[in-house]
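Before relying on records like the one below, remember that each one covers exactly one chain. Contacts with other chains, cofactors or solvent are not represented anywhere in the record.
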Amino acid sequence: LLMGIIVERAMQAGAETAHEKALKKEQDCKDSSVRLFELCKELDVDDSGCLTFEEIENGYRSNIEFQSALKLMDVDERQLKLVFGVLDTDGSGDVDYEEFVEQLYMMKNQESHTLLVFIKF
């Protein structure tokens, strides 16, 4: 009986820890997206509310924090043009930076989800 109580409590503690980790990951993601949005505002040279490819490319080369944020999402300088092309759905030559941030995170999460689907099957 005592062993059963110990095992049950250990399982509950593990479940709480997993839940806490998930909450922390979610909060970290929100914090990161807020910071990336702020960085995009700083890169918006003409204050248009949108980023051109040139602004993103220049930001990547000159702003270490922006570069690091993109690298954390597995986007390096060679992939910038491709990512920009995917996000510039209307072909206007610029992307709203709120949408840029949201879509980058969605791409990163979708990539992980797709990978899990391929691994599962």
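The chain has five helices and two strands.
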